[in-house]
Amino acid sequence: MRPASADSLRAVLASVRLQLLIVAHRPMNIATGIITPWMFMSLYLLPRLNKVSESDVTASVTASMVGALWSASMWSAAGIIRREKWMGTLGSTLSSPLNPFLAILSKVVGAVAHDTALITVSVVSFCAAFRLPVRTSHPVLTLVSLMLVVVFGVAASSMIAGALIISRNPFHLTNLVGIPVLFLGGMVVPPSLLPAPLSWFSVTVNFYWLREFMNTLSSPAPAYHFLAAGTALSAAYLLLAYLAVRRLLALAKKEGSLALS
Fold first, then answer.
1. Cβ distance 258 to 252 under 8 Å?
2. Which among 38, 182, 192, 206 counts the fewest CB atoms within 10 Å?
3. Both ends of the chain: CA-CA distance in Å?
4. Span 186-200, mean pLDDT?
5. Nearest-angstrom CA–CA distance, 23 and 115
6. Which residues contact 134 (CB under 8 A, 6 or more apart)?
């Protein structure tokens, strides 16, 4: 008999692959993965293209990547739950033999991996097209940071997915957190440029800390405390997502149905 852990791993990998195939055929994912990064990079750099510095390029690349991934997640990774609630398939997903949290997490991983790949290609193509000066003092850490974009994206998307799971108005909740967090979370607008009463919000966003860490990779000494703060927030996001799934299952036992939307 095959161990249960092996069967679970196969189920997770199959779910990730299926979600990759699903999002790869959605025009919205192409728009958010390719067009959005080019738009952000153009706004940051084209007005000063003749005098752009390496630090400017680094800042624009990191902002474009995390900002575009957050925007994409609203329609792909976190949007998975919104669509499943709308289509009435969430109950089937959560009542499958696979652990309910792993079922949600595997879908999110597939969508985030696809979006990150598109965004990376888009940013690299922009830098190549305009021959922008790109330099990193820590190539290995840069590669690790690109992988962390996926990890942090999965954590943030899972938390939003968890909120959508227990929400009776997932579409309105998506609108509530999408654009405001993008601009107030320190992803595309530095907190120093925001009004003082709003500048604190960025410290609650894991992408902000990842962006700050990535911005220091062109210096001799990267700021690891930024990475530590982002990692801690990502772990907290995953915990909140797990508790949200547990909350839904508890309500389902009480109501006798997973159709709580």
1. yes
2. 192
3. 39
4. 87
5. 8
6. 54, 57, 58, 61, 127
Global pTM value = 0.86
> Could you tell me which residue, 146 or 81, shows the higher pLDDT?
146
| Cα distance between residue 15 and residue 34, in whole Å | 24
Alpha carbon distance 18, 24 (integer Å)? 10
Q: Which amino acid is at 43?
A: L
Is the pLDDT reported for residue 1 higher than 80?
A: no
CA distance 184 to 206: 13
For residue 185, the number of C-alpha atoms closer than 13 Å in the C-beta half-sphere is 23
Angle formed by the axes of helices 54-75 and 206-215, nearest 10°? 160
CA distances from 167 to 81, 161, 238 (A): 10, 10, 17
Instruction: Using alpha carbons, select from 52, 56, 35, 48 the residue that is nearest to residue 121.
Output: 35
Share of the chain above pLDDT 90, in %: 20
pLDDT one-digit tens code per residue, 18-27: 888 887 777 7
Q: And the tokens for 160? A: 């939003």
pLDDT band for position 218 (50/70/90)? confident
pLDDT of residue 254: 67
Q: What is the pLDDT of residues 7-20, one digit of tens each?
A: 778 888 888 888 88
Query: Taking the C-alpha atoms of 227, 143, 158 and 112 in order, what is their torsion angle to the nearest 10 degrees?
Result: 150
- Judge whether residue 5 has pLDDT over 70: yes
Could you write out the DSSP letters of every residue in 144-213?
A: HHHHHHHHHHHHHHHHHHHHHHH-S-HHHHHHHHHHHHHHHTTSSS-GGGS-GGGGGGGGG-HHHHHHHH
Nearest-angstrom CA–CA distance, 68 and 152: 13
